[in-house]
Design brief:
The protein has 130 residues and is mainly alpha-helical. The chain is built from 6 helices and 3 strands, in the order ααβααβαβα. The protein has a 3-stranded antiparallel beta sheet with strand order 1-3-2.
Length: 130
């Protein structure tokens, strides 16, 4: 239940979090958030791997500084879209690291954004073609 002074969209945009919220599929997410979620779709990843994957997925358009990445990860953790897990590669190199993975809520947000983007591209294609 939302307090009287807070709407679902206010919570969705990450302005304040008291508990994970339902995903509003019609609302766009930022490009940075989209690529972070997309980076984690195949499985868990640690910070540096996410930074490199986002750069690759975006074809170099999105270059995350560590501050931007960890700020975004903190917000996504608070929203319940990702969770921290032990990094399986940490045992191999002896360094203790945390990895992040999508939650079901995060997967739903990513799926909703993919659907939204697909609808935009479809509409543009239909308009241009016809």
């Amino acid at each position: 239940m939302l307090p009287d002074d807070m709407s679902p969209i206010y919570l969705f945009l990450g302005c304040e979090m008291r508990e994970p919220v339902e995903v509003q599929n019609s609302q766009p997410i930022t490009e940075t958030t989209y690529f972070i979620l997309l980076s984690l779709a195949p499985g868990p990843g640690h910070g540096y791997a996410i930074m490199k994957d986002v750069q690759k997925l975006s074809q170099g358009r999105v270059l995350l500084s560590t501050g931007t990445l960890y700020g975004a990860l903190k917000r996504l953790l608070e929203q319940g879209w990702i969770e921290r897990v032990d990094d399986p590669s940490a045992a191999e190199n002896g360094r203790e690291r945390k990895a992040y993975r999508l939650t079901q809520l995060g997967q739903t947000a990513l799926d909703g954004e993919i659907e939204r983007l697909h609808a935009l591209v479809t509409a543009a294609g239909q308009r241009v073609a016809g």
